[in-house]
Specification:
By secondary structure, the protein is mainly beta. The protein has two helices and 15 strands. It has a single domain (about 25-255), classed as outer membrane lipoprotein receptor (LolB), chain A, CATH 2.50.20.
């Protein structure tokens, strides 16, 4: 009952603010985010000694283009940097190069559809499906992000807690990655107690509609088909479904032989 009342209160506040704004609210724009992902490292073989030398988290920059009808979440290629690491020890020399895959997520907000371009194990896939209905619950907590008054929403699924902060001041049900479907734009996400954190670093009320295009590269599959492909490959690598890397974190597995 408390949750229902909170949701009704949020909806009422959203309608009130919209009515008072006279149509001058931000309904399209560009958001830049910084994403921090905790990395779970598995080193096997002669170079296992290097495990403690490899950074345990990875930072990257993302962009969300949005208007009332659609949103596109992509890598910020201008700010992207490939990481090259080299380590030497008794087990030999290890060289690691990491780069951001060309992943894209297009959300048709009007028709509740999504198209995701996803790179997995050097293969590109085009995943089509409907927007998921996330079981968000509003807590009533508030804070300011980049000058926008934000409200807290919490989702608990499969024993994992996700906290999102959205602003009714931008009445668009979009956000980074799949964190959306709230009565306002999502500016911050904390998944699984910091395993993945996405925070807005800038918001502009301008968007080039030419950027809001559907991704086209990759083999077309359903969400279920892609999940099966990913599960089978991860199983081959010895990673069980539900681990940090198989969900919203990241797993780096390296096997080294002399």
């Amino acid at each position: 009952m408390k949750t229902s009342l909170l949701l009704l209160a949020a909806a009422a506040a959203f309608q009130y603010v919209s009515a008072q704004s006279g149509g001058n609210q931000v309904t399209s724009g560009t958001v830049k985010y910084q994403e921090t992902v905790k990395v779970e490292i598995h080193l096997e073989g002669a170079g296992a000694e290097f495990a403690n030398m490899i950074p345990k988290e990875r930072k990257s920059n993302k962009i969300l283009y949005f208007n009332q009808d659609a949103a596109l979440f992509i890598n910020d290629k201008e700010a992207a940097e490939d990481e090259n690491m080299a380590f030497e020890g008794e087990g030999g020399m290890v060289m690691i190069k990491t780069s951001e895959p060309d992943n894209k997520l297009f959300t048709d907000l009007k028709n509740k559809k999504q198209i995701e371009q996803r790179e997995f194990m050097t293969r590109m896939f085009l995943i089509e499906g409907s927007m998921e209905t996330s079981p968000w619950k509003l807590t009533g907590n508030e804070k300011s992000i980049l000058g926008y008054s934000c409200q807290e929403a919490v989702m608990e699924k499969d024993s994992i807690k996700t906290v999102a902060w959205f602003t009714p001041g931008i009445p668009v049900a979009a956000g980074p990655a799949n964190y959306n479907n709230l009565p306002g734009l999502v500016l911050e996400v904390n998944y699984n107690d910091g395993k993945r954190v996405i925070t807005a670093v800038s918001v502009e009320d301008k968007v080039d509609v030419a950027n809001l295009v559907k991704p086209k590269e990759g083999k077309k599959v359903t969400k279920e088909e892609f999940q099966t492909i990913m599960d089978e490959k991860m199983k081959e690598m010895g990673i069980e479904r539900g681990s940090a890397g198989h969900a919203e974190g990241a797993t780096m597995m390296i096997r080294i032989s002399k």
